[in-house]
Amino acid sequence: MTLLSVAQMNSQNDIEANFNIIESLLQQSQSQGSSLVVFPENFVCFAAGKQRETAERFEEIQQRLEALAHQYQIWIIAGTLPCPFRPDGRIVSDGRVRTVSLCISPEGTEARYDKIHLFDVQVGDGVGGYQESKFFEPGSELVVAATPFGNIGMMVCYDLRFPEMALRLRHLGANILTAPAAFTYTTGQMHWQLLIQARAMDSQCQVLGAAQQGWHGEKRQTWGHAAAADSRGKLLDIVSTEGTQLITVPFDLAQQQATRLAMPLLEHRKLLSFSH
């Protein structure tokens, strides 16, 4: 059995202050014997309009996180970072950036996932409408990272609303799905816990949902409630208080395999086409 940690943060626009909190959460995870800690979306810097500025520091921030993973001998899902270049190194030419989640081992970066589903929606909150595609270029590749404790299918926030993505990651070998997020207060209150459990149930993967919580500036409020669900869709733990928090849950690969054998959903699935 392995222990896995999931963080809740209230990141602001001060990168150094956020890094102090990141390191304290890593210390806490290490003291609990965790093999992995998952950080939320925008965990190093949460500031509207600063994506490009933060993206220029992508490699510096990546190296700093790699050093922390090595120092604490722990795997890190580095929430999301804005990045000015694509996985092949080409610069995003239109002024947008990529939303990138990194899987970092104590030896260095093992995988990079560029967020595929962008949040272009109308929400009844202080911001009103969100148009991520104006500032971010979507990724197109699914990513499963191999670790000593199981294969990680990497997702980000809005990706949770698309069950076919979770199913495809399972098909590609995922045992665990990581979902760094910054759900709005409005949508999080309605759907966050439901989506964590539903994707776990759909895919028979353990789902780890790291979350931003609270106010970020004057208009943006996130829901929080960092959570984890097991391969049957059972809620293992969820944060119920405000501010920086950490939950640590068990992951048992043998138990997951037994669950999948008892109810072989992938084998039973029928490929149904949509008719127009």
How would you describe this protein?
- With 276 residues, the protein is an alpha/beta fold.
- Helices cover 29% and strands 29% of the residues.
- The protein contains 7 helices and 16 strands.
- Strands 1, 2, 3, 4, 5, 12, 13 and 16 form an 8-stranded mixed beta sheet that branches. A 6-stranded mixed beta sheet has the order 8-9-10-11-14-15, with helices on one face.
- Helix 4 packs parallel to helix 5 (185-203).
- The model has no long low-confidence stretch (mean pLDDT 95).
List keywords for this structure.
single chain, 7 helices, 16 strands, alpha/beta, globular, 276 residues, six-stranded mixed beta sheet
Q: What's the number of helices?
A: 7
Q: What is the overall silhouette?
A: globular
Question: What percent of residues are in strands?
Answer: 25-35%
Oligomer: single chain
What would the average pLDDT be, to the nearest integer? 95
What is the radius of gyration computed over CA atoms, rounded to a whole number of angstroms?
Answer: 18 Å
What is the N-to-C succession of helices and strands? Answer: EHEHHEEEEEEEHEHEEEEEEHH
State the separation between the terminal residues, measured CA to CA.
Answer: 47 Å
**Helical residues, percent:** 25-40%
Uncertain regions spanning at least 5 consecutive residues: none
Please describe the biggest sheet, giving its number of strands, its sense, and whether it closes into a barrel: 8 strands, mixed
- The counted number of beta strands is 16
Structural class: alpha/beta
